[in-house]
Amino acid sequence: MPPPALSSLDSSTTVLRLPHPYHTPYAVTKSSRTHGSDELPLYQLGITSTAPAGLAADRASHAVLHSDGIFFTEPTDLKSSDRPHESNNTPWGRARRSPSVTALWDAKRSALPTPAQLWLLAYLVFTVRPAEEAFRLTLNDGTSTAEGPRALGSRLKDLTLAVDHPVDSTDGAAAPPSELLVLRSTFWQAPARRLARGPRYVPHLAETFSMAALDWTDDAHLGLFHAWQNDPRVSQGWNETGTLDQHREYLRRLHEDPHQFAVLAAFEGVFFAYFEIYWAKEDRLGAYYQSGDFDRGRHSLVGDVRFRGPHRVSAWWSSLMHFLYLDEPRTTAVVGEPKSANSTVLSYDFIHGFGVEKFVDLPHKRSGLMHCSRERFFQLCPLAENDKVVGGTGVGLVPKL
């Protein structure tokens, strides 16, 4: 399915939503302006007209991430006659096959855009075109000297939000200094970004995913864990049925164990799942492979049946992995140990970049030792609603999903 065109987006529909402390929902609006001899339509990002009024005070106390003075074009691919052949897999060739976006402002009427405002534009592009590994960004302030675009481009590169467009190795010609390359892998590693570990808006669900540390002394948290573990569907895999006191003691011991911690996950503030996050080297799994000092693993269960289904799994599975990499920059791998016969869990792992390192015999089960490196995760960036294929390939997985 081709990605949606900006022209097809309803101006009243939220495309992006920033988490706390911004709370800002954004929509794309087509302006009356055009760009260039081809009269390309220009668009703007603005706060959704249906945004709750109660959020205005929160937004007012923080930096504004959009501007009425910034316009941008639709992500546009080169014509086939201008597009380098797939056999040209040089950095230049790959960059030229990436779509192009031009960001424009009038230097006489508007202030120089901030890096945060260009970050918001990049967020939009990678939301509507999640399969793109990069896009070319041209900065244009309407002047012949282009001093503003050069200064802004330099700041974007300093923040690692963009890099210089690669040089064509056949003739050595450099791209204009106002044309940059924005990399998806770098964007999702949150360069110079304070929202790294906050809640995440999931566009294909139009809901926000968040996590909270489970408090074993909180009756509501304990009640959820107790109810879920005694659900026959959950106990089939976890084998942790028990009384309220037994579950309180289970969570107390886990809380006091420095190598792991318990988390509740929520969509739109409604807790639906329980995760256990651990340091692999200090876990029993660490004895079965050459674990890195900061490798992390996770166990998970969905307790609320209203939140089951592959469209939701693709949201929380990738969000949890994303959190683990952003939470600790020294984490170079995320691992797991699902039952070797659990085709559903194995398939979801394959979709999100894991591979089977080997099979290990734990005392209570034979498991697949699943491994996903940081490099592979951010190469794939499987944060959208994913096809049911092995991550990065066209190899299909079981239709059961």
Account of the protein in words:
- By secondary structure, the chain is an alpha+beta fold.
- It has 2 domains: 6-187, no CATH class; 200-380, Gcn5-related N-acetyltransferase (GNAT) (Aminopeptidase, 3-Layer(aba) Sandwich), CATH 3.40.630.30.
- The chain is 26% helix and 25% strand.
- The protein is built from 11 helices and 16 strands.
- The chain has helices at 56-60, 91-96, 115-128, 147-158, 184-187, 219-229, 232-238, 244-256, 310-327, 343-351, 374-380, and strands spanning 16-17, 25-35, 40-47, 71-73, 100-104, 134-140, 163-164, 179-183, 200-202, 207-213, 260-267, 270-279, 296-302, 333-336, 355-362, 365-373.
- The strands form 2 sheets. Strands 1-2-3-4-5-6-8-7 form an 8-stranded mixed β-sheet.
- Helix 6 (219-229) packs across helix 8 (244-256).
- The radius of gyration is 23 Å and the shape is globular.
- The relative contact order is 0.08.
- The mean pLDDT is 92.
- Residues 75-98 are annotated as: Disordered.
- Residues 212-261 form the Acyltransferase MbtK/IucB-like conserved domain.
Q: What class, by secondary structure content? A: alpha+beta
Question: What spatial order of strands do you see in the largest sheet?
Answer: 1-2-3-4-5-6-8-7
* Overall geometry: globular
How many DSSP helices?
A: 11
Overall number of structural domains: 2
Average pLDDT number: 92
| pLDDT < 50 stretches | none
